[in-house]
UniProtKB/TrEMBL annotation:
It catalyses: Exonucleolytic cleavage in the 3'- to 5'-direction to yield nucleoside 5'-phosphates. Residues 474-544 form the S1 motif domain. This is exoribonuclease II. Gene3D superfamilies: Nucleic acid-binding proteins. CDD domains: S1_RNase_R (cd04471). InterPro entries: CSD2 (IPR040476), NA-bd_OB-fold (IPR012340), RNase_II/R (IPR001900), RNase_II/R_CS (IPR022966), RNase_II/RNase_R (IPR004476), RNR_Ribonuclease (IPR050180), S1_domain (IPR003029). One of its GO terms (cellular component) is cytosol. Pfam families: CSD2, RNB, S1. Its EC number is 3.1.13.1. PROSITE patterns: RIBONUCLEASE_II, S1.
Amino acid sequence: MLGVIFDKENEVFLAYSHILKESKIVHVKPFTKTPLKLGDIVILKVQDWSSYPRKLTADVVNILSHIKKPSSDIETALVEYGLSDTFPQGVIKEAEKYPKEPKKEDLEDRFDLTKEETFTIDPDTARDFDDALSLKKDENGDFHLIVHIADVSHYVKKGSLLDEEAYKRSNSTYFPGRCIPMLPEELSNGLCSLKENVLRLTVSVFMHFDSKGNIKNYDIRRSYIKSQKRFTYKQTLKIIEGKLKNKHEKTVLLMVELCKLLQSIRNKRGSVDLSLPEVSLIIEKDQDPSGVELIEYDITHQLVEEFMLKANETVAHSLLSRNTPAIFRIHDTPSDSDSEEFYALARMFGFKLKKSPTKQDVQKLFESAKESENHYQLCIAFIRSMKLAIYSEDNVGHFGLCLEHYTHFTSPIRRYSDLVIHRLLFEETLEKKALKEIAVHCSDKERVSFRAESSVNLLKKLRLLQKYLNNDPDMEYEAFVTKVKHFGFYFEVYPLMFEGFIHISEIGRDYYHFDDKRNALIGKATNQVFNPGKRIKVLLKQVDFITHDSIWKLINSQKKKNKK
């Protein structure tokens, strides 16, 4: 267990531990090896839990780092969430035994697709390229799309040390400026990565669409390719906008055309396009954050995602048509209460919704809200109303995508579930019991990675906010209310996408009461209303790296209402 030393009472230190669910305070005995300091991040060992949560006492096993060091953020998360940035020596040796390039015998019984026009589209910083694209349009106006995915299963054999370690990790974990990979770099960034002008082994999904984007037939084959170009999203966007000339321009524009057809079909099913920008923290060499970059979900991101969605859906269909037991990516319907809360917010913003909206009604709502000032708030509220997607051996469909069958196939470099799907396509069958065990494990590990990533992202944002506070204590932040309780309200600072809280006692001098029907706090004297979606301005007063808390002040411009 990890803790951060924050106080001392006589000879006993007090540590704060995020992992504890109730009281997070731990009484720490003096460390004999090195004197403890306030802010030390320590590894603790609890000898007796019987008195918890009333009191908990622990010994210090080791001093990991200090909370003031930005370099401690990821290292702390690795220890706290049981992740590792190094691979066992046996796993490294197994990865190193493979040559830098595929051998001649590896190409046997595979489709030679090296003459196909093929390229990758990825972020600027990407190093593991697990997907590439090819697209043609025939004389009838039909589209022929090929999605090529790195054939990781050719190298990571079931029961090998590589396989055992990949299963243990189950996925890559992405921190700001750093990736903890599922596979060693020799494979993830080397032999399995679909680099430019390099021969690579792949699994290719051939999809034939009519001129309206409806799939006519498909095929899935083991193959080998040679990607002709490594495009970034930014470069691809310039080609689409006519700002960059390239020999692949015609194909890129064809991809935009097919993407829009597929989006239209998906939208008619009721699948919602949220198109939210991604907040990317800018990290310096010392792991200190220096700012944020908003990455827009533009057409380049959309077309790659659309083609990957279609490939995943097609593979799921293939496995089901063969009655092959598999792992599916499922997404259950949201609870009635969560849905009603979202509908109420949409109606409060002035959007018309019938009593029991269909998926298509919700999709139309977001289409009409795109130019609204409340679009972002609606997107966030909709996401929060959803249940989490998980892996399962039972196919119950995917609510968010409005699909009856869906799986994960397109990222075997960074997801173990995808690696299993590759094996099921060609070389093995598994009983449902074994698939269930893998599905549960992958879902659990995905949540662990998510919590670790969220923890580091939060701490990095707190460090950035502290910088802003030091530079300008009077800096005002634009925000909007996300959730209202009887004791205060939560808000989100945009574009940092940071959640803060203001207690009811800090709103102002007025007396505020909670109106359950309006889901709002209402001032008695001012009649000021705080409800979800309300835009506010806030001032940052204090940041605490130890508790991950922040203290904010509302910039209140309301005056008392006139009494008649």
